[in-house]
Structures are given as structure tokens and as C-alpha cells.
Specification:
By secondary structure, this protein is an alpha/beta fold. The protein is built from 5 helices and 37 strands. Strand 36 and strand 37 (309-310) form a beta hairpin. The model has no long low-confidence stretch (mean pLDDT 93).
């Protein structure tokens, strides 16, 4: 796909006069960084501090803020929202799946219902009672178990597993290696061994959810595990049984949410955070990386540390902790001085006693 300057300005939603020079013979066939760009690439510079990098770049054109310095030799396209506009253009170059139609090597149960223009890769398995919406893409090696529902325009990349009864909404994107609807981790001790508790619920994922590679979203023991619309989940995230994840939540890599917990709308859970079972993280809350959440977090609060507590408190404690080595040295020095003072005092007392005896 190739765009000329007027077409790029249209995608950026700026007038042609925003480009300098406006008559440049421009052909853009990709996007790139300033350092790696070639003559067919569009780049982004967000601050005037990048002027030297822009001047040195081989990019065909650069999207810049309206107050960016004038530079010779570069095609600058000025925008009031350069970042947003740049990524609108980038969307035009987004990867398009090479899977076309239904592979002869896919296994599709005759009771499955496929919508229009569905693409299914080689070695994918579509089980009984599955319903696949229009324009869905199912990558090679995927498994869709009995009664799975896949909403329109969703993409399931290679080697994704959707276990029985899992429901995905429209425009979902599930990256390779993720398992949705596997058994929750439920056991009870019967006095002799851990007895498995049957996991009879399901997973419901609403519209516009994206889940990264090698994630696990477990089915509920009873009822449902639910991820609400617009939530984005990074790679290597664990969502346990009966968990409820709100709308537009961000879950960053290696975070884990234990069973029956709640994460409110718009919350941000940073990398390697552990959320204990039956805990509620309120809407808009933010949990810093590697924190351990052991009790409820109120809405809108930023917390950090293990156990997670208000970030200001944690930072004060960490600052105090950093002073401990110096404090210990002072204490040890003062302890030595006290010992010396004690010896001197004892010597003076002995002198006084000796004088009084004479």
C-alpha cells in the first residue's frame, strides 16, 4: 500500500498546507523510527528537542507539532495532535492475516455454524455446537471446544485454545498460545489428599478485548469468569476462576489475579502484581509493579509495595529504609561512646572514693 502527500494529510486529518513543502513528490509505504527510516517511511517527532534527529533522518516525511522548528530538506507535516494522527496512518499499514478461506486441513464439526467470510487456518479444530461470527479469523492449530461462541470480526491467532462454553464478543483479538476456559485451580483437603473441585462454569469475554500471548483465563467453578469490554491484557497474565475484570482495564505482563477477585473499570495493574483471592480493586485504581494486593483498594487510589498501600506511604518508608545503614553506624558509634563515658564515669567515681578515704 502506497500513499502520496495529499492522502497522508487526509489520514492525518490536516490540510495539505500543513505540509512543508506542499509540492514534495512523496510516496509513503510504511512507518518507522527516525533512526531507521528510509525515504518511503513516515515518522513521528513529538518535541522540538528532536529537531537534530529529524534533520539527520532519512524519512520521507515526519509528523510534528504545530510549533516545531522549520527545517530544510525534510518534509514536515504539522498537526495539533501529531501522535494520534501518526497512529491513524500506522493503522493503514497494520498486519493483515495471510489466512484466506478455510483450509482443507482444518477439522470442522458438521454442527458448527460459521458466519460469512470466515478464515480458518490449517490444523485448527472447530468443535460441535461452535458459533463463529462473520469475518472472524482462526489461526493455524487453534482449538475451539464444544459450544464456543466467537463474535464478529474477532481474530484468534495461532495455537489458541478456547475450551468448552467460552464466549467471546465482537472485535476481540487473542494472541498466540493463550488458553481461555481451562479449569480453575480448585481443590479441597479431605483429610488424606487434595480432592479436585469440579469447574463447571464458563468464561465470558466482552467486545473489543485484547489478550496477549501465553495468558490463561480460567473457567469459573460455578457461574462465570468475565472480562468486560475494552480491557487490554499483556502477555503472560493469569486470570483465575470467578474473577470479574471491569471495562477498559489494563493488566500488564506477569500480573496474576486470584480467584473471585474484582478489578474495577479503568484500573491499571502493572507488571508482576499479585492480587489475592476475594479482593476488590476499585475503579480507576493503580497498582505499581511487583506489588502484592492483600486487601481491598479504594477507587482511584494509587498503591505500591507488598502489602500494597498508598504510594506516598510506601515511598516514605523506602526513603527511611535507605537511611538505615547510616543510622546503624551512628547508633553503633554512639553505643561505643556511651561505653567510654561509662568507663570514665566509673574511674571518676573510684577517684572520688579514694580521695574520701584519705
Amino acid at each position: 500500500m502506497v500513499f502520496d502527500l495529499p492522502q497522508i494529510c487526509t489520514l492525518l486529518q490536516v490540510p495539505l498546507t500543513a505540509a512543508e513543502p506542499t509540492q514534495a513528490p512523496l510516496r509513503i509505504d510504511g512507518v518507522n523510527t527516525l533512526q531507521l527510516a528510509g525515504g518511503g517511511d513516515l515518522c513521528l517527532a513529538e518535541t522540538s528537542e528532536q529537531a537534530d534527529a529529524v534533520q539527520a533522518s532519512g524519512a520521507g516525511a515526519i509528523v510534528v507539532p504545530e510549533d516545531f522548528p522549520v527545517l530544510s530538506g525534510s518534509v514536515l507535516i504539522r498537526s495539533s495532535e501529531p501522535r494520534r494522527g501518526f497512529f491513524r496512518v500506522a493503522e493503514a499499514f497494520a498486519y493483515v492475516s495471510e489466512i484466506q478461506g478455510i483450509s482443507a486441513r482444518a477439522v470442522i464439526d458438521p454442527t458448527a455454524i460459521l458466519g460469512q467470510d470466515v478464515a480458518i487456518g490449517a490444523c485448527a479444530v472447530v468443535g460441535p455446537g461452535v458459533r463463529v461470527g462473520d469475518r472472524c479469523i482462526i489461526g493455524p492449530g487453534c482449538y475451539l471446544g464444544p459450544d464456543v461462541v466467537l463474535g464478529m470480526d474477532s481474530v484468534i491467532e495461532a495455537n489458541v485454545t478456547l475450551h468448552r462454553g467460552s464466549v467471546l464478543g465482537q472485535r476481540c483479538l487473542i494472541h498466540s498460545g493463550t488458553v481461555i476456559g481451562g479449569d480453575g485451580f480448585g481443590f479441597s483437603w479431605d483429610g488424606n489428599r487434595h480432592r479436585k473441585i469440579p469447574q463447571l462454569g464458563c468464561v465470558v469475554i466482552e467486545d473489543d478485548v485484547e489478550i496477549g500471548s501465553n495468558c490463561c483465563v480460567d473457567r469459573a467453578t460455578l457461574g462465570e469468569t468475565r472480562i468486560r469490554c475494552g480491557t487490554k491484557i499483556d502477555n503472560l497474565v493469569q486470570v483465575a476462576h470467578n474473577t470479574q475484570i471491569g471495562q477498559h482495564v489494563i493488566l500488564v505482563s506477569q500480573a496474576g489475579v486470584a480467584g473471585s477477585s474484582r478489578v474495577g473499570d479503568g484500573a491499571v495493574i502493572a507488571g508482576q502484581v499479585a492480587i489475592s483471592d476475594h479482593v476488590s480493586v476499585g475503579p480507576g485504581a493503580r497498582v505499581g509493579g511487583q506489588s502484592g494486593v492483600t486487601k481491598d483498594v479504594p477507587a482511584g487510589l494509587s498503591v505500591f509495595g507488598t502489602p500494597a498501600r498508598p504510594i506516598r506511604d510506601t515511598l516514605r518508608e523506602l526513603a527511611a529504609l535507605a537511611q538505615l545503614p547510616g543510622l546503624l553506624k551512628r547508633i553503633n558509634r554512639q553505643a561505643g561512646e556511651l561505653v567510654e563515658l561509662g568507663k570514665r564515669l566509673e574511674a571518676l567515681e573510684q577517684q572520688d572514693r579514694s580521695g574520701s578515704c584519705r
